[in-house]
Amino acid sequence: MPAVHRLAVRVRYPEADPMGRLHHSVHLVYFEMGRTELLRERGLSYREMEAQGRYIAIAEVRCRYRAAAMYDEELIVETWVEEVRGARVEFGNRIVREDGGGRTVLAEARITGALVGLDGRPMRFTAEEIALLARASQSSSGPSTSTDGAAP
Hints:
- By secondary structure, the protein is an alpha+beta fold.
- The chain has one domain: Hotdog Thioesterase (Thiol Ester Dehydrase, Chain A).
- 21% of the residues lie in helices and 40% in strands.
- The chain is elongated.
- The termini are close together.
């Protein structure tokens, strides 16, 4: 069962549409934030990968919007690794609102990335990268991130 990385975010005013609801495009930004922090937690700095000429290019996004989030609400972005194979990595993502002991799923996504070089050609993940991506989450500190071992 994959380990889930959790990142707390608050809907900021410029991310809301005129009705005060989180704009659908911002979900992708939140998913990106979740992926970046999951990589960092696993010991993979995306900045260092880029410095080495290794980039995760997003090849596919499948997102299902289930409920609206409103301006100033605190949300949790959940991210986990579904699969790593060759040059491909698939992430699972979820945005939830925790309210009064329950939780509401606002959006769910599967995002597929391809590891590519500066020339845009696919590169295989190293054995070390695969091991780091596949491992269980480590505990992290700080108010904005936390992890749990719960299955998605």
